[in-house]
Design brief:
The protein is α/β, with parallel strands linked by helices. The chain is built from eleven helices and 15 strands. A nine-stranded mixed beta sheet has the order 14-13-12-11-7-10-9-8-15, covered by helices on one side. A six-stranded parallel beta sheet has the order 3-2-1-4-5-6, with helices on both faces. The relative contact order is 0.16. Bound molecules: nicotinamide-adenine-dinucleotide.
Amino acid sequence: MAKKLRVGFVGTGGIATGAHLPGYQALDSVEVVGAADVSDASLSRFAEKAGVPAENCFNDYQEMLDKVDLDIVTVCTPNSWHCRPTLDAFAKGRHVLVEKPVAISADQCREMIEAGKKAKKMFMVGQTLRFTKGAAQMKRWVDKNELGNIYFGRAQYLRVRGVPGRLGFVTKELSEGGPIYDIGVHVLDLTLHLMGFPEPVSVSAGVYNTLATKKSPLMPFPPEKYTVPDDAAFALIRFADGQTVILEASWALNLVSGQHNVVLCGDKGGCQLEPTALVRERAGVLENITNEIFNYPERAGHVEEIRRFVEAIQKKKPSPVPGEEALITQRILDGIYKSGETGKEVEL
Ligand SMILES: NC(=O)c1ccc[n+]([C@@H]2O[C@H](COP(=O)([O-])OP(=O)(O)OC[C@H]3O[C@@H](n4cnc5c(N)ncnc54)[C@H](O)[C@@H]3O)[C@@H](O)[C@H]2O)c1
């Protein structure tokens, strides 16, 4: 039997324990052998669940990279700590799966891509939504040209009162951005993926920090702890071939109910994620095909994401979510914050 691929975790909190670990554990061809986290509590909880021996658990991830023989490093730290461990893991010749958003700036993402190329190792970004069943169905429709030329997309992830209850998400030094980085990036990535990653040329955005910065029993933290620049943001993105995408993301918004959708409109048909449906003209009527797809059986997207990552390494396939695609998304995210600050359209 071929040697198992050896995985080390950098960051062992919620997504590491709840999603990446079950993803790797579902595969016979990998074993989780190392873990690093600045928090002892997080590290020991994870180590127990993953069966990582104490001598392979570290507070300093660099020590893990130096001391443990690894093939794969899976980076599950807060956003500001995505770039450095990725660069260090590539320097050691490891494959890297890094959580979304890829980084906190396009420049960081460029460095990560270069480091991966230099190391000749797999670089994948954890854009989980792509690996859900509804997204895969939308991709099949797009690939069968059911939509024709797609000229409009709407990427929506709006929570009414859903500020995450962990400081790593709301503290600027750790997260850099709010809902745009946390949840907007998921729907934007899927929209761009389905549109074939067109070249963005400009973005005009409104970036707000209105509700999460007020004292309220509905917010998990007092205002002084909430230091990311947004609790809601809305953007119009233009692309070189004339397409437009509207992105809407919020953790807190005075809205009747939350929205989560990706909608694509083409000259032959249109489709959406929730519920997964295709609309097209046939024999003079507008036909609507709704697929009964439950997109989120517990963590299914993550399990599929990790299966595809490992398969790509083993079969020497291209990265299922390459850094170059994440770079396009990150340039847009950078543009959104800049446009929000200046109140002007930003050229990308
Ligand atoms: N793909 C998804 O659906 C999804 C869902 C949730 C979170 N995420 C992403 O995963 C990342 C982590 O989120 P989470 O929910 O697990 O957060 P979390 O706060 O539960 O866990 C983060 C862990 O990283 C540790 N950490 C912080 N700095 C570190 C460092 N320098 N070295 C080692 N460990 C360090 C923390 O102690 C903590 O245990 C974020 O980037 C987030 O955007 C993705």
